[in-house]
Structure formats: C-alpha cells, structure tokens
Amino acid sequence: MKKKILLIAATHGDEQIGLEVYRNLSARGLEKYFDFLIANPLALAGGERFIDCDLNRSYPGAINSRFYEKRQAASNLLIAKKYRYVIDLHEASSGTDDFIIIPRKKLPANNFLGYINLKRVLLWPEPRGPLGDVLSRCVELEFGLKNRDRRMIIKKATKIVADFIINAVNDKLVTKNKKTIYYVYGELLLGQYAGKINLLRDFKKAKIAGETFYPLLVGQYLNLKNKIVCYKIRKEKSPLVVSSVS
Ligand SMILES: [Zn+2]
C-alpha cells in the first residue's frame, strides 16, 4: 500500500524536534503509515540553520541553482507532491506555545486541520517560500521551547503527530476541534519599539503607538539583520470550515 503521509524534519538544520518525534513514532510502530524526509541534510549535519539561504524561504526552488537550499527545495517538492498529507515539524527556542502554520492568506479548501489536535492556526502568507506556500497539502507544526521542559514538549509533539496519523488513516476528525485562526500581518522592528521587550507576551494583546495586536515569537528573531522584536498577528473573524481531504 502506498503511504499517504510524509513527515518532514530539519527544514532548519538547527532544529532537532522532527528527528526526535520520528524516533518516538518508529518506536511505537507507526512507521508503516508514513514516510520520512530530512529536508536539509547538510545543514542538519553541520548543526546550522541553513547552508546558503533559508530553506523555508526557498520553495519551489530550482534544480540547477547555485544555492544549495534552492536545489534541495526543488528535490523535496518533487517528493512531497506524491503525498496527500505533508507535515513539516519545527521548533522555536523563544516560542511559548504550539501552533499550526499555514503559509497562505486563506485556509486551503482541502485542509486537514480536523485531524490535528492543536488549537491555534496561523495564516502566515509573507514572506513567501515555505513548502506549504507552493503545496497546499503541507502544514507546519511549530513547538515553542522557551521555559518549557524539552522532554515534555517532544512527548506532546509525538502525541499530536501520532494522533494525526491515526486520524488521517481512519478519516476520524478530532472531537471538540475548535480552532482559533490568526493572521500574521506584520512585524515590530527594534527601531520602532522603545519599550521593554519582556513586557510583550505571545498571544497577549498589546497596544503600541495606537496599534493593537497580538505579539508572536517575541525575541526569536532579534539576531536577524532587521532585528524583529516580534511578529504582529490579529484574530480572524471568519468561521473556520474544517473539511477532510477526499
Ligand atoms: Zn524551523
């Protein structure tokens, strides 16, 4: 039987969570239901986020590119296209919560959120280039590790992915599957913010210079060139239609 589920790890080579979850799923005998792909093997081997450029900004990629991640994106996409469900696992060292990321403006009509027992869903259309941007059957799961016990989070991530696999195989929707949808619409740069960064909390409403928003991933990307204090997100009002993929 051809497998319908692809689990992707190490899109960012400095994130181990995908490998850890994979080992746990294998130990539980679930490997017969899914295939596994290490998205960025060179970066993983070096313990680096990427080699030439961020793989999560490189799709659809180009097979003859001079950039390693662009070539890798093209070959990963060819593989991922063959599956009905693609889950890409990530971790955020400064994240305080766990959520589903759909790198699009709207939920795809054939989304399979109903199989995933995580409440928060982030629509995150910019910047372009995650796999889910070009392949609507791919979602990212992001697990936050700030002030949280890594073992517990890996256990939680394993359970969520294991339940997803069982639900998808049996076409069983999660009961009490209420989702809150957020839209990532901007970023707060260090130059725009005079306050204390530790006053901002993920998913806790903030008002800065007359603008009200929910912060996301506070402090995660301060070391980037453009020094992002946090992303700005708003709650989406539109009701969620969760349908299974047929
Ligand atoms: Zn990542």
Task: Explain what this protein looks like in three dimensions.
The chain has 246 residues and is of the alpha/beta class. It is built from 5 helices and 10 strands; from the N terminus they run βαβααβββαβαββββ. β8 and β9 form a beta hairpin. α1 (17-27) packs across α5. The mean pLDDT is 93. Zinc ion (ZN) binds next to loops.
Radius of gyration over C-alpha positions, nearest whole angstrom: 18 Å
Secondary structure tally, helices: 5
Instruction: Tell me, rounded to a whole number, the average pLDDT.
Output: 93
Helix- and strand-based class? alpha/beta
The outline comes out as globular
Please tell me the total number of domains.
Answer: 2
Count of β-strands: 10
- Which homologous superfamily in CATH is the superfamily of the largest domain? Zn peptidases
**CATH overall fold name of the largest domain:** Aminopeptidase
Bound molecules: zinc ion
**Level-1 CATH class name of the largest domain:** Alpha Beta
H/E series: EHEHHEEEHEHEEEE
Strand content: 15-25%
Oligomer: single chain
